[in-house]
Design goal:
The chain has 6 helices and 2 strands, in the order H-E-E-H-H-H-H-H. The protein is mostly helical.
Length: about 90
């Protein structure tokens, strides 16, 4: 799987990174100061750059997290079965 940063950037002949047009479009639309004009989560998920080459189940996982607001401990426990909140030995 290609990382998001590698999908967003490409090298020019001079060896400098350049933001792809799809990534630039998404970033510009995300960085709108007015929340009424800013992209919604549904628009983000439907955007070409966001939805291209996602791993199987990624949108379902995102939907689950968005519909189950939780604290960082719950998210970490879901991602790492060995994580136990309050255990001092963990980072």
């Amino acid at each position: 799987m290609v990382s998001a940063s590698r999908r967003c950037l490409r090298l020019t002949r001079a060896g400098r990174a350049q933001v792809t047009p799809e990534c630039k479009d998404l970033l510009v639309r995300l960085l709108v100061a007015d929340p009424e004009r800013r992209m919604s989560m549904e628009e983000i998920k439907a955007h070409t750059w966001f939805s291209h080459a996602l791993p199987t189940g990624a949108l379902h996982m995102n939907d689950w997290y968005m519909s189950h607001p939780s604290g960082i401990d719950e998210v970490r426990a879901h991602l790492d079965p060995d994580y136990h909140p309050g255990c001092a030995a963990q980072s």
